[in-house]
Amino acid sequence: NAPAKCHRQLCQRASVLEFLKFSSQILVERSIAPTRSSVREKEYMCHVYVRSDSLAGVVVSDHEYPSRVAHTLLNKVLEDFASKVPSQNWATLLESTCQFQGLDVYLAKYQVPTEADAMTKIQADLDETKIILHNTIEAVLERGEKLDDLVAKSEDLSAQSKAFYKTARKTNQCCRIL
Question: Can you give the C-alpha Rg of the chain in angstroms?
Fold first, then answer.
């Protein structure tokens, strides 16, 4: 029974790969150079980049993977490929015989978007900091202290910062849900 299950999984994987390859080919064929696009295909996202010289690449990812990072990966891979493989050879290359050594390195590096892309890492750090600050402010307010009182008592804030806080507070008052 185990060999049958293994065979079934291999067949399913082969079918998925075949479908993704087919979808990628269609997307590239129907894209007008130069173009970048991201297309949702069931549980996948297909990120397509066709350069002005018609060299193209597709990254297939889940919906969580940042589109900007996928396109950065495509740009780097295609630039590297174009620098190593002469353009006159592109039309005659076969997938089975084409060896591009750098691809595995790029794929490994871009598995975790925050490690591969500085802007994504900064955004993740900002999101984490925002959560921490929000929790800290909530904890302070739960102890019965009011933010207005803390701002008024603070010696660390300049008069300009205090004025900014008061103005922002007044501006946001109209946004309260009653």
Answer: 26
| Same-domain check for residues 166 and 82 | no
* Short-list 117, 98, 96, 95, CA closest to 106: 117
Q: Which residues of the chain have pLDDT under 70?
A: 1-12, 140-157, 162, 165, 169, 171-178
Q: What are the tens digits of pLDDT across the range 62-76? A: 999 999 999 999 999
Q: Are residues 99 and 154 in the same domain?
A: no
Domain span at 91: 2-111
- pTM to 2 decimal places: 0.64
